[in-house]
Design goal:
6-stranded parallel beta sheet; two-stranded antiparallel sheet; 7 helices; about 25% helix; Rossmann fold
C-alpha cells in the first residue's frame, strides 16, 4: 500500500519514535542529522488519521547511564560476565544488575550519556512537530532499573501497553519514523512485527547512531529478512 493511502487508512498509524531534543544535534545523545527529518515527519503527522508519539523518559541515575557506574564511559558495554565477576562498582547492587542483564537481549546494556531525563530541556519533543496531532504520547524508559528501546516492550520484556491500545483502536498497520534507526525505531519495528502488525519502516525519515560499527546495515538487513517493509 502506498504511503498516501496509508495516511487515509483508519487501520494504520504513524508512530513517531523519540524525536526529542537530546537525540538531535546539540543534544546529550545527538544522532547525526537527527533534525533533518523533522519537516518530513511533520508533513506525515498532518496527513495521517492516527498518530502516536513516543518519548524516552528517564529518571536521574538511570541504569543505562554510564555515570551510574564507577569508571565507565558512554558507549561502553555493561556485560553479565563482568557483573558476575564482581568488577563493577555502581549505585545498583550486583544482584539487581545480574537479574536485569539475564533478562535483556544479549545479556548486556549499552551505557549512554545521561539523556532524556524527565522534565529537562533535552527530554522535550521537537517543538516543530505538530504535537497536537498525536492521539497520545507513550512515555518509555521510566523505570529506574530497566531500559526501554522499543515502543512495544521494555528491554526486560515488560509490555508498554502499546499493542493493546492499537488493537483497541482496530489498528493493524504501523508506519515507523524517528530516532534512532538502529535502536529505538529498529526495536520497535521488530517488536511490532512479532506482535503481528504490518510494519512499514521509513529509512528516509530516521537517522542512525551506527554503534557498534555497521549497526545500521545489520538493522536494515534483519528487518527485511523478517518481513518488515523497509522503504
Amino acid at each position: 500500500m502506498k504511503l498516501a493511502d496509508l495516511a487515509k487508512d483508519k487501520t494504520a498509524a504513524l508512530i513517531v519514535i523519540d524525536q526529542q531534543i537530546d537525540f538531535e544535534p546539540g543534544g546529550a545523545l545527538a544522532v547525526a542529522g537527527g533534525d533533518e527529518i523533522v519537516l518530513g515527519i511533520s508533513k506525515l503527522m498532518n496527513e495521517f488519521q492516527n498518530v502516536i508519539l513516543t518519548q524516552d523518559s528517564h529518571p536521574k541515575g538511570h541504569i543505562s547511564f554510564a555515570s551510574s557506574y564507577e569508571g565507565k564511559k558512554p558507549f561502553e558495554l555493561l556485560t553479565l560476565k563482568e557483573v558476575e565477576a564482581g568488577s563493577i562498582r555502581s549505585k545498583f547492587s550486583n544482584e539487581l544488575l545480574v537479574n536485569y542483564l539475564k533478562r535483556v537481549p544479549h545479556q548486556l546494556q549499552v551505557l549512554w550519556p545521561d539523556h532524556c531525563v524527565t522534565e529537562t530541556n533535552g527530554w522535550k519533543i521537537n517543538p516543530n512537530l505538530p504535537i497536537e496531532k498525536a492521539s497520545f504520547i507513550l512515555k518509555k524508559g521510566m523505570r529506574l532499573e530497566c531500559d526501554s528501546y522499543s515502543a512495544f516492550f521494555e528491554n526486560d520484556g515488560t509490555p508498554t501497553g502499546l499493542s493493546k491500545i492499537l488493537r483497541e483502536k482496530k489498528i493493524n498497520k504501523v508506519v515507523l519514523v524517528g530516532l534512532a534507526g538502529d535502536y529505538c525505531v529498529y526495536w520497535s519495528a521488530e517488536d511490532a512485527h512479532k506482535e503481528v502488525f504490518e510494519v512499514i519502516y521509513l529509512q528516509n525519515l530516521t537517522r542512525f547512531v551506527n554503534f557498534p560499527e555497521n549497526s545500521k546495515e545489520k538493522a536494515l538487513t534483519h528487518l527485511r529478512e523478517i518481513g518488515v517493509q523497509v522503504d
